[in-house]
Structures are given as structure tokens and as C-alpha cells.
Specification:
Pathway: Purine metabolism; purine nucleoside salvage. Its EC number is 2.4.2.1. This protein is an alpha/beta fold. The chain has a domain at 84-280: Nucleoside phosphorylase domain (Rossmann fold, 3-Layer(aba) Sandwich), CATH 3.40.50.1580. It is built from 8 helices and 9 strands. The chain has helices at residues 5-17, 92-95, 97-105, 137-140, 167-179, 202-211, 221-229, 256-280, and strands spanning 26-29, 42-48, 66-72, 75-81, 109-118, 128-136, 186-193, 215-217, 233-243. The longest helix has 25 residues, at 256-280. It is globular. Residues 31-32, 60, 83, 85, 114-115, 196, 217-219, 256, 259 line the site of the ligand O=P(O)(O)O[C@@H]1C[C@H](O)[C@@H](CO)O1. The ligand O=P(O)(O)O[C@@H]1C[C@H](O)[C@@H](CO)O1 is lined by residues 31-32, 60, 83, 85, 114-115, 196, 217-219, 256, 259.
Length: 289
């Protein structure tokens, strides 16, 4: 029932490593409409997901389905231009397999980006939220990517998630956001993942808000759990692409088109923030601050 993740991710990591010159130390995942980040890599070497052994395929508009290697501010990086979601029908272990492939290729730090609906009433469309914590709703029902036999080669059976999102990297993002003049639209908050693909009802948005979530989406937390399980450092950003609707009189309707359009409008700043951060990270898990 559970495929041997170590052998499939190991085979894929080796396949990729034999085709690139420098192993990556930073792994980046591009959220919906944020794939332009991958185009900022220098000296890119790209693989289509369909050509990579054991890799799932991207099925969502705004997720190109390419794995791009290259350098960002001189650091060797790998960038997923397109991620996988529960609602695409993949088992949760398959969705997160790329995290283990990252680990086996030598990645130390993972940067996850996503598009999300804003639950916090102070948030505006276009805000960039530094993820300080998550609420893993599918996990409450037993849909956690670590369900199944634990492979000790990756990590412990019961990993701690109290420091899922690296606090030093959160501070670095705040500092660099201020340096870049982005303070007006940089926020910090809690991301809640749901299974999707339907957007939330008004009652659901109200409930999530009361539970302490600032933004709601359909990804990221699963990847963060698997990345932390195998000891990688995690940093995540949510682009608030739409307001979660909490009022029965509201005429607003979320749509994937709106999500992609907000991505287009804010992509340049988000890319600058990520590339500046990568430039300021040490590859041995220290930060130049
Ligand atoms: O991959 P992310 O989490 O950025 O994608 C979000 C959630 C859905 O896949 C989609 C909804 O518009 O965007
Ligand atoms: O409002 C949303 N809900 C869930 N996922 C999302 N991804 C972008 N916007 C949203």
C-alpha cells in the first residue's frame, strides 16, 4: 500500500544529479501563478515533470510542470515550477515526494510559496504573508503525509512541529522586506490547509478565522511536514490573492482566474524578496544577518 519512498526518491535524485553540474542547496516551490520565480534562475537546466522518473504530473493551470536547476544570487537552487495538490487525486505521499528528492540531492533549505485566501480582516489582496505556523486540517482526519511505515533514514516516527517554520528566516524576511520598501504589504500569520478543490463556504471561512487562521489554501503544510521530518529548514510565503468571504451579503466570488491575476500583479516583488533572501543565506544553515 505504501511504496518505498526511499528507493523511489533515491532513484529520482540520482537520475537528476547525474544530469546537473552542481547539487542544489536551496529548494523552492512555486505556488499558483508564481512560477515566474523559476525564470529568475541563472544558467537554468530544466526538466519537464513527465520526463522525470517517479514524478507526478502538474494538472493545474498556473503550474507549468518543470523542475528548474540554476543559481540565484550565486547559490545553487532547484525550483519546482508547479506543485501537486491533494485535490488532483494523488496520494499525499506522492504530493510530497519532491521534498525527499530535494533532501537526497543535498537541499538544506526549502522555500515554499502559495496563493491563499485572506481570512484576517486586516489583510488586503496583494499582501505577502510570512507563514509563522500552520493548521493541517486534512491531518486532523488522518491524512498526514507521514502516515504509513516510518522510514528512519529520513526521520523520526513522531517529529516535532513546534518550529516547523524557521524563525530566523522569518526575521530575515521581515528585515529584507523593510529594506526593499515592502513593509506596507508584508504580514505574518497562520496558514490553514484544506483539501480543496472547492473554495470555502462562508461558514467555513468564519470557522477558520475563529480557529486562528489568517489565510486559507490547499498546499504547503504537507510539504513543510515532510521537509521538517527529514531535517530541512523551511520558510514559507503566502500571497493573499483574494479575500475569504465571511458575509452572506457579499457579492465577491473567489476564482482561480483572480488568484492567477493577483499572482501576476505581485510576482515581481515576491521574486525580489525570495531572491534577496537566498542571497543572504549561508549554505551551512547560517544566515548573514
Ligand atoms: O499551489 P497553491 O497552493 O499556490 O494553489 C492555490 C490553491 C489552489 O491550488 C489554487 C486555487 O486558486 O491556488
Ligand atoms: O480562497 C482560497 N481558498 C483556498 N485556497 C486558495 N488559494 C487561493 N485562494 C484560496
Amino acid at each position: 500500500m505504501y511504496p518505498d519512498s526511499h528507493s523511489s526518491s533515491g532513484a529520482t535524485a540520482n537520475w537528476l544529479l547525474s544530469r546537473i553540474d552542481t547539487p542544489p542547496v536551496v529548494g523552492i516551490v512555486c505556488g499558483s501563478g508564481l512560477g515566474g520565480l523559476a525564470d529568475t534562475l541563472k544558467d537554468p537546466v530544466a526538466f519537464h515533470y513527465q520526463d522525470i522518473p517517479n514524478f507526478p504530473q502538474s494538472t493545474v493551470q498556473g503550474h507549468a510542470g518543470r523542475l528548474v536547476f540554476g543559481t540565484l544570487k550565486g547559490k545553487p537552487c532547484v525550483c519546482m515550477q508547479g506543485r501537486f495538490h491533494l485535490y488532483e487525486g494523488y496520494p499525499i505521499q506522492k504530493i510530497t515526494l519532491p521534498m525527499r528528492i530535494f533532501k537526497l540531492m543535498g537541499v538544506e533549505t526549502v522555500i515554499l510559496t502559495n496563493a491563499a485566501g485572506g481570512l484576517n480582516q486586516d489583510y488586503k489582496v496583494g499582501d505577502i504573508m510570512i507563514v509563522k505556523d500552520h493548521i493541517n486540517m486534512p491531518g486532523f482526519a488522518g491524512n498526514n503525509p507521514l502516515v504509513g511505515p516510518n522510514d528512519e533514514r529520513f526521520g523520526t516516527r513522531f517529529p516535532c512541529m513546534l518550529d516547523a517554520y524557521d524563525r530566523k528566516l522569518q526575521q530575515l524576511a521581515q528585515d529584507l522586506g523593510a529594506e526593499l520598501g515592502f513593509s506596507d504589504f508584508i504580514r505574518e500569520g497562520v496558514y490553514c490547509v484544506l483539501g480543496g478543490p472547492s473554495f470555502e463556504t462562508i461558514a467555513e471561512c468564519r470557522m477558520l478565522h475563529r480557529l486562528g487562521a489568517d489565510a486559507v489554501g490547499m498546499s504547503t503544510a504537507h510539504e513543510a511536514i515532510v521537509a521538517r521530518h527529514c531535517g530541512m529548514r523551511v520558510f514559507a510565503l503566502s500571497l493573499i490573492t483574494n479575500q475569504a468571504v465571511m458575509d452572506y451579503h457579499s457579492e465577491e466570488r473567489p476564482s482561480h482566474e483572480e488568484v492567477l491575476e493577483t499572482g501576476r500583479q505581485r510576482a515581481e516583488q515576491l521574486e525580489r524578496l525570495v531572491s534577496t533572501m537566498v542571497g543572504r543565506m549561508e549554505i551551512n544553515n547560517n544566515i548573514n544577518v
